[in-house]
Design goal:
CATH superfamily of the largest domain: Type I PLP-dependent aspartate aminotransferase-like (Major domain)
Number of helices: 16
CATH topology of the largest domain: Aspartate Aminotransferase, domain 2
Radius of gyration: 28 Å
Strand order of the largest sheet: 5-13-12-11-10-6-7
CATH class of the largest domain: Alpha Beta
Shape: globular
Structural class: alpha/beta
CATH architecture of the largest domain: 3-Layer(aba) Sandwich
Length: 486
């Protein structure tokens, strides 16, 4: 007998009517080819007995399926799957080839997620590559402010369609904020609000480059930025990165030979190695930009988190003649799920990026954008930053102490001046060989396979781990290394 009870799934805890759950299951199984066209199905009384449900529920489901054309009743014969449904032929998703050229290579694995557990059910401790601790974010305030805005006289208007450039109040407030904190000379027309910095990078690549243009990135670089430029059809040209950041002498030599359209940098604290672009090289980069007429995309994703001294002012604070595209985000300040970022650039560049943004995303979250404006105005952003910087510095110092005490024989690193991660380099063991050992001990480390092979290193994010959590992680790392050596 056909296993109807096994394949027709219902769950009384779901917020969906039971009869619709039954019809959903039928449609899914028919579409997958497991229930064949013209196949006879049990009557409503029998199906109700099999599923342990009221017959009226099954009758409702059958009526719904009949109305949609999935089943048909034949007088004196019974109920059948419709005979005129098309026959589906399915190919396993694993055998389908991805188109080349326009997508990140499988080697970079951009779609990999961090699992919550391993096959034996053991919960993993996740160590990211450098993210804010969402537990510190003032989300109660954010929710209260959201409700207050929605209930205000103007709040309902923010739920409708709006301009693609973003909430005007946030743009105006942000222009003043960036002027006061970063010395940038801006007005509202110089800002485009995005859903995080990645969208800003993507829009800059799409709007300001052409197929075949040459874009300079570091020898080590933020992989998602690389993907954005490659997707736009650009050729990546890699320049060495050392303790002073992007090597401007090597860049100058490259510019003398080739025409460069754009240079991408993460000046505070280079991704992934965490070094800060020195003042001298910032000046040299600006001079090269003017001499060779290329655009600099300045991805200042964690400008705010500097522990040794005040951050160096952005290149965008200089008189750059429209050659700097400045990208920032509130996602690194509050929490990754707060998808509000921004791009600062010349009017015409902003308008060009806005036209492309209109194609891929009609507009942003106006309520959250207005909340971010209020966070700046009433000082909530400043208070949260002050608290976060103090706590993150303590966590950085604690991790440095732990690493020096427990893993000094196996790793080496430079203490980052700021940011959210330590660039941890392995000395006498191969990081790629350790990954399975880390997982077996209960760790999920954000190890990029390419960077692990090239540099035998990974980014150890410390900001999202409390001190006790860091103790546990380093303890398990030590255990994993010992297991690999035995």
């Amino acid at each position: 007998m056909f296993p109807w009870k096994s394949i027709i799934a219902v769950n009384t805890n779901l917020n969906r009517a039971l009869y619709l759950q039954i019809s959903d299951s039928f449609i899914k199984e028919i579409s997958a080819g497991r229930i064949q066209r013209s196949q006879k199905i049990p009557g409503s009384r029998k199906m109700a007995e099999l599923l342990g449900l009221n017959r009226k529920t099954v009758i409702q489901a059958y009526e719904e399926l009949s109305a949609q054309g999935w089943i048909q009743s034949i007088s004196s014969s019974g109920t059948y799957i419709s005979s005129d449904l098309p026959v589906s032929r399915y190919t396993s998703i694993e055998t389908t080839e991805l188109p080349s050229g326009k997508l990140p290579s499988p080697e970079s694995n951009p779609f990999e997620y961090i699992p919550a557990s391993i096959p034996n059910g053991k919960k993993l401790i996740i160590v990211d590559g450098g993210s804010p601790d969402h537990r510190l974010a003032p989300m109660d305030w954010v929710y209260r402010e959201s409700r207050s805005i929605i209930n205000s006289s103007y709040g309902k208007q923010l739920l409708t369609y709006s301009g693609v450039h973003g909430d005007d109040k946030l743009r105006d407030t942000l222009a003043q904020y960036l002027s006061e904190t970063r010395g940038m000379n801006l007005n509202i027309t110089n800002l485009l609000i995005t859903r995080g910095s990645q969208m800003g990078i993507f829009l800059a690549a799409q709007a300001l480059t052409n197929q075949g243009d040459k874009v300079v990135v570091g020898s080590s670089s933020y992989d998602a930025a690389d993907w954005a430029f490659e997707y736009a059809g650009c050729q990546l040209k890699r320049v060495p990165v050392d303790q002073g950041g992007l090597n401007t002498s090597a860049l100058a030599e490259l510019c003398s030979r080739e025409s460069i359209k754009m240079v991408y940098i993460t000046p505070h604290h280079h991704f992934p190695t965490t070094v800060t672009l020195s003042n001298i090289r910032r000046i040299e980069l600006m001079e090269l930009s003017m001499k060779h007429d290329f655009i600099v995309v300045e991805d200042d994703y964690d400008y705010d988190f500097h522990y040794k001294s005040a951050p160096i002012l952005p290149l965008a604070s200089l008189d750059h003649g429209g050659r700097i595209i400045y990208v920032g985000s509130f996602s690194k300040v509050f929490a990754p799920n707060v998808r509000v970022g921004y791009v600062a650039a010349s009017n015409w560049q902003i308008d060009r990026m806005a036209r492309i943004r209109r194609i891929i995303d009609r507009q942003g979250d106006q309520i959250m954008e207005r909340v971010m404006a209020e966070a700046i105005i009433n000082g909530e952003l400043s208070r949260h930053l002050k608290k976060s910087i103090r706590i993150y510095k303590q966590r950085r110092d604690h991790l440095v102490e732990l690493l020096n005490k427990d893993l000094a024989n196996h790793v080496e690193f430079d203490i980052p001046e700021g940011g959210m991660a330590v660039w941890l380099r392995f000395k006498n063991c191969q990081l790629t060989d350790l990954r399975d050992y880390f997982t077996s001990t209960g760790l999920s480390l954000d190890i990029d396979k390419y960077l692990a092979r090239q540099f035998n290193a990974f980014r150890f994010g410390f900001t999202s781990l409390e001190e006790e959590e860091q103790n546990k992680v380093v303890d398990l790392m030590t255990k994993a290394i010992e297991l690999s050596a035995s």
